[in-house]
Design brief:
The complex is a heterodimer of chains A (87) and B (467).
Chain A: H1 3-17, H2 32-36, H3 40-54, H4 69-80
Helix pairs in contact in A: 1-3, 1-4
Chain B: E1 2-8, H1 12-23, E2 28-31, E3 42-46, E4 49-53, H2 70-78, E5 87-89, E6 93-96, E7 101-104, H3 108-118, H4 123-134, H5 149-156, H6 160-172, H7 183-196, E8 199-201, H8 204-218, E9 222-224, E10 229-235, E11 238-244, E12 249-257, H9 261-265, E13 268-269, E14 284-292, E15 305-309, E16 327-331, E17 345-353, H10 355-360, H11 363-381, E18 392-398, H12 400-407, E19 431-433, H13 442-459
Helix pairs in contact in B: 1-8, 1-13, 2-13, 6-7
The chains are: A mainly alpha (87), B alpha/beta (467).
C-alpha cells in the first residue's frame, strides 16, 4: 500500500467510527484526540478495525503511535507495505 | 453451532452489546423471551394505537457535534449519526411542590436561575454542589462504596424542600433504592436530566428499537424471539450452555445477561448460594396513559414533563397502598419540539406502586383496583392541575405486575437491584451482567451499559477496567 492508500484506509476507519465528522479537515500533524475528540474507547475501535480489515495486531505498547494521522501512517505503512487493499 | 457470545434479553443493553460484538465479527445470538424487543423500554399496541412503555423521554440529550457526552459516545460506538436518532428536544419541564416550583430546560442556566430566585439562600451551596458533580467520574466501571446522596446534599444545602425537589425527578427516572440514592447514581441522573436534558425520537421506541435491530441483523447478529431461558448450565465455574424452556440447548463461550443479577443467578444450574433478598429491587410504578381529543396545551398542560409532589415531604418508597398518589410524573409527549405535531393528545401519569399488593389481588379485583386507583390518582392530580377527563378518548394502565409479566424483572422493579455491579462480573467466570443491574440507567445509560460490558469482557483482551 502506498502512503496515500494507508492514509485513506485510516480515514475510512475514522469515518465509520465517527460518521458525523468531516474527515476533509483532518490535519495530519495534530493529534486525532483533539481534532475529533477520540477517547480510549475509540482507539480500541481503531485497533480492532485494523485487525478486522488488515489482520494486523497493534500491541498496546504501540497505541501511542496512533496519536496523529502522520504518526499512524509512519507506523502502519511498513506493516501494510506488502498488502493489497482489502476491498 | 457454538456461539462466541449469547446475550439474554433484547432490551437496549442487549441489543447494544450485540451490535458491538457483531461489528467485530463475533458469532452472537440474542435470545428474548417476549415476542417484542425492548425489555423495559418497549411498546405495545391497543386499538390501532402504539404506546411506548418505559419511555417518557430520553435523558442525556446533547446536540449534534458534542462527542464526549454519553450520547456522543453511544453514537460513535454503535456507528450512528446524530440525525439517525431523530431527537426532538423538550420545551420546558417543571418540578412542582406545594409551595415552590422549579422550571428547567435543556439549558442548565435556567435551573441555576430558578434556584437563585426560588431559594436565594441556597444558591451558593447549589453552585458548590454543581462543581462537585462536574468533577465526579460517575461512569467509572469500578465499584465504589455506597454514599448517601441525602447526606452529601445536606452538606451543601440546608433547605429540605430544595433537596426533595432535586431528588424527585432523579429518583423517579432512575433510582432503584427506596428513600435515598447512591451518590454516583445521583450524579449520573443529575447530569443526564438537568445538565443534558430531555428529547424524544420521532417514531418513539418502535423506531429506535427498529434502528438497533436492523443494524444488529445487518452485521450478522442473530435474534430469537419467544426463546425463554430455563437454566444457565454451569460446569466448573463456567457457563457451558443455556437450556431454553422448550428443552433446546445452546452453547457459547460467554454469556451476557440483561435479565437482572438476581434473576440471572437464580437460573444457574446447579444453583449458586441463594442471593439475599436485599439484592432484589422493590421500586415499581403504575402508569396510566390518556389519549385526548384536545391538545394538552389547550387544557392547560404546557410542560413537557412535570415531577410533582402534593405532600409536604417527598417520599420515594414502596407505598403502604396500591399506589402513592401524593407524588408522580406527568408527561405530555405533545410538548416536545416535533417537526410535525402528533395527531392526538397524550398525557401519561406515573405513580409509585406496591408490587406485593398488586400481585396479591385476584383477577377481578385487580381489574377493579386499576380503575379505582387511576380515579384516585386523577382526583389528587386535579386538585392542582386542570381536569382533562372530558377529553379522554382512550385510556390504559399498567402495574408492577404487568411489568414483571413482560420483562421478568422481579417485583416489576424497573430500575433493578439497589446494589449495582458496575464491572458486570458474577461468580461464574464467563457470565456477565448488563442493563439495569450493571448500573447505567435510562435509554442512553442502558445502551452504554451493553456497550461497556461487551467492550470490557469480550472485545478487550485484558480484563482491567479503564480508570
Amino acid at each position: 500500500m502506498t502512503k496515500d492508500e494507508v492514509r485513506q484506509a485510516i480515514l475510512d476507519i475514522l469515518a465509520d467510527i465517527a460518521p458525523d465528522e468531516d474527515m476533509n479537515s483532518i490535519n495530519d500533524e495534530a493529534t486525532l484526540r483533539e481534532q475529533i475528540d477520540l477517547d480510549s474507547m475509540d482507539f480500541l475501535d481503531i485497533v480492532m478495525e485494523l485487525r478486522k480489515r488488515f489482520n494486523i495486531e497493534v500491541p498496546e505498547k504501540d497505541y501511542e503511535q496512533l496519536v496523529s494521522m502522520a504518526s499512524c501512517i509512519q507506523y502502519l505503512q511498513p506493516i501494510l507495505n506488502d498488502r493489497q487493499l482489502a476491498s | 453451532m457454538n456461539y462466541d457470545v449469547i446475550i439474554i434479553g433484547s432490551g437496549l443493553s442487549g441489543l447494544a452489546a450485540g451490535i458491538r460484538l457483531a461489528l467485530f465479527d463475533k458469532r452472537v445470538l440474542i435470545v428474548e423471551k417476549h415476542t417484542v424487543v425492548g425489555g423495559l423500554n418497549s411498546f405495545y399496541t391497543r386499538k390501532q394505537r402504539t404506546f411506548d412503555v418505559g419511555l417518557h423521554a430520553m435523558t442525556n440529550f446533547s446536540p449534534k457535534g458534542v462527542r464526549t457526552s454519553p450520547l456522543g459516545k453511544l453514537l460513535k460506538q454503535l456507528r450512528f449519526g446524530h440525525d439517525d436518532f431523530r431527537l426532538c428536544e423538550q420545551e420546558m419541564s417543571e418540578i412542582r411542590f406545594p409551595e415552590k416550583t422549579l422550571c428547567f430546560t435543556n439549558d442548565f442556566e435556567l435551573l441555576k436561575q430558578e434556584v437563585a430566585t426560588q431559594f436565594p439562600g441556597q444558591i451558593d451551596g447549589f453552585m458548590n454542589l454543581v462543581r462537585k458533580i462536574e468533577s465526579f467520574d460517575a461512569l467509572s466501571l469500578v465499584n465504589s462504596g455506597w454514599a448517601s446522596s441525602r447526606d452529601i446534599l445536606g452538606n451543601f444545602l440546608s433547605d429540605p424542600v430544595l433537596i426533595d425537589m432535586l431528588l424527585c425527578p432523579l429518583m423517579y427516572y432512575g433510582n432503584a433504592q427506596e428513600r435515598d440514592m447512591d451518590f454516583y447514581q445521583f450524579v449520573i441522573m443529575f447530569k443526564s436530566i438537568f445538565m443534558e436534558g430531555f428529547a424524544k425520537p420521532v417514531g418513539g421506541m418502535p423506531y429506535i428499537l427498529g434502528l438497533l435491530v436492523d443494524k444488529y441483523q445487518n452485521l450478522g447478529g442473530e435474534l430469537r424471539m419467544s426463546a425463554e431461558v430455563e437454566s444457565i448450565d454451569i460446569e466448573q465455574g463456567a457457563a457451558r450452555s443455556l437450556t431454553l424452556v422448550d428443552g433446546e440447548k445452546l452453547t457459547a463461550d460467554a454469556v451476557i445477561s440483561s435479565m437482572g443479577r438476581v434473576e440471572t443467578l437464580r437460573r444457574c444450574l446447579p444453583g449458586l448460594e441463594e442471593p439475599t433478598d436485599e439484592l432484589v429491587g422493590q421500586v415499581s410504578f403504575v402508569e396510566s396513559l390518556f389519549v385526548t381529543d384536545q391538545e394538552p396545551k389547550e387544557m392547560g398542560y404546557n410542560r413537557s414533563i412535570v415531577f410533582f409532589c402534593t405532600a409536604n415531604r417527598f417520599r420515594y418508597e414502596v407505598p403502604p397502598d396500591l399506589i402513592d398518589v401524593t407524588s408522580g410524573v406527568l408527561c405530555c409527549p405533545n410538548n416536545f419540539k416535533y417537526p410535525e405535531p402528533p395527531s392526538e393528545g397524550m398525557i401519561r401519569l406515573t405513580n409509585l406502586a406496591s408490587y406485593r399488593l398488586w400481585d396479591a389481588l385476584p383477577r377481578r379485583e385487580y381489574i377493579d383496583a386499576k380503575k379505582e386507583w387511576r380515579a384516585r390518582a386523577l382526583e389528587n392530580l386535579f386538585t392542582f392541575f386542570p381536569d382533562f377527563s372530558d377529553s379522554v378518548v382512550f385510556l390504559d394502565s399498567f402495574t408492577p405486575k404487568t411489568i414483571f409479566k413482560y420483562t421478568g424483572h422481579l417485583n416489576g422493579a424497573v430500575y433493578g437491584s439497589p446494589k449495582k455491579e458496575k464491572d458486570g462480573t458474577t461468580p461464574i467466570r464467563n457470565l456477565f451482567i448488563c442493563g439495569t443491574d450493571q448500573g447505567f440507567l435510562g435509554i442512553i445509560g442502558a445502551t452504554l451499559s451493553g456497550i461497556s460490558m461487551a467492550n470490557l469482557h469480550i472485545l478487550q483482551k485484558k480484563v482491567v477496567p479503564d480508570v
